[in-house]
Amino acid sequence: MDYVERLFPNPRLIFADSAGPRYNIPPGTHPMAMHRLADDFELERLHWGWRPHNSKYFMSSARLDKILAGAWPWKMLTARGRILVPADCWYEWKPLADGPKPPKQPYYIHATDNAPLFFAALSNWRPGADKDEAHGFALVTNDSPWAA
Question: Is cis: bond before 95, omega within 30 of 0?
Answer without folding.
Answer: no
